[in-house]
Specification:
By secondary structure, this protein is α/β, with parallel strands linked by helices. Helices cover about 45% and strands about 15% of the residues. It contains 11 helices and 13 strands. The protein has helices at about 10-20, 40-50, 65-75, 90, 95-115, 150-170, 190-200, 220-230, 255-270, 290-300, 305-320; strands spanning about 1-5, 25-30, 55, 75-80, 120-125, 175-180, 180, 205, 215, 220, 245-250, 255, 275. The strands form 4 sheets. It has a 7-stranded parallel beta sheet with strand order 3-2-1-4-5-6-11, sandwiched between helices. A two-stranded parallel ribbon has the order 7-10. Helix 1 links the parallel strand 1 and strand 2. The chain is globular.
């Protein structure tokens, strides 16, 4: 079996490529290596993959070039993880989200529509689509028509485009709403990374909404277990009018922000100096995943508690930066 992964130099893309190649898949990947965060980290991830994958540096929003790549590679499964990430950055640079998340996703859908010997598309959505939803845990059947950030709006738009392509052209698709994925080789814009960096330097950390927040932190290994299982076998769409399904991927255990900071204090051996701040625009107080659908279809059982996962991250961070 052959998979093509977009965003292969990104956090989740890198781990997915490593897992599939280890399982015997042929893996090709594409990434534009943009400078949203240090491209050196992205290149280091590619170097860690080595010859296990074939890499193409390409912007997926370049539809003609991306379609040619799919025609050349002829993958069985496309795993679309490339996106402009980050809620807060979407306020500063909205057009980056329109190109990467909207045009990029449409480019992938068009390539899938015309692909030969193609099975199914797996694509990244986000828990951000739930916006300020007060009902918890968040279920895939909840309304998601009130986003509180442009990033969330683009991800909701991606889901709608995918549903349309499933209806019009029969493109089999699975959208994954990720809940705060963390772990080794993670993203430097995420709170657990910036907190670790500042705590090890002895600098204060910004704690928004005065710490009154909870997140469903989901360890990378649990996430990749799901992606690999869905890559091996898409769900049955028998009796459905369109072959498109959405799954939450979360730990089903929201962690208070102050507890996460406490786990980092234990992992780093440093006491956090907390700079309490008001809530930032576009942020939400809580995320909490209902994962019953994923458990029923794929036996999903997230197994990594926050203290263990953050210890793994801090150990990696110390080794990577020689701290």
């Amino acid at each position: 079996m052959k998979a093509l992964i977009t965003g292969i130099a990104g956090f989740i893309g890198f781990h997915t490529a490593a897992r599939l190649s280890k399982a015997g898949w042929t893996v090709a990947g594409v990434d534009n290596l943009n400078d949203y965060y240090d491209p050196g980290l992205k290149r280091a991830r590619l170097a860690a993959l080595g010859d296990a994958v074939s890499f193409h540096e390409l912007d997926i929003a370049a539809a003609v070039a991306f379609a040619k790549l799919i025609d050349d590679e002829q993958p069985d499964v496309i795993i679309h993880l490339a996106a402009q990430a980050g809620v807060r950055y979407s306020i500063e640079n909205p057009f980056a989200y329109a190109r990467s998340n909207l045009l990029g996703h449409l480019s992938v859908l068009e390539a899938c529509r015309h692909a030969k010997n193609f099975s199914h598309l797996i694509y990244a959505s986000s828990s951000s689509v739930y916006g300020g939803n007060k009902k918890t845990p968040f279920s895939e059947t909840d309304p998601v028509d009130a986003p509180v950030s442009l990033y969330a709006a683009t991800k909701k738009s991606d889901e709608l485009m995918s549903a349309t392509y499933a209806h019009l052209y029969g493109v089999q698709q699975i959208g994954l709403r990720f809940f705060t994925v963390y772990g080794p080789w993670g993203r430097p814009d995420m709170a657990y990374w910036t907190f670790t960096d500042k705590m090890l330097r002895g600098d204060p950390i910004p704690v928004f909404n005065h710490g009154r927040m909870r997140r469903d932190f989901t360890y990378i290994d649990d996430v990749v277990d799901c992606i690999a299982a869905i890559a091996d076998k898409p769900p049955s769409f028998a009796g459905e009018d369109r072959p498109h399904r959405i799954y939450n991927i979360g730990n089903h255990t929201p962690v208070p922000l102050l507890d996460m900071i406490g786990a980092l204090e234990n992992a780093t051996g440093r006491k956090a100096q907390m700079d309490m701040k008001d809530m930032q625009p576009g942020d939400v107080c809580e995320t909490y995943a209902d994962v019953d659908r994923l458990a029923a279809d794929y036996g999903f059982n997230p197994a990594t508690p926050i203290d263990k996962g953050l210890k793994q991250f801090v150990d990696w961070y110390r080794a990577y930066f020689n701290v």
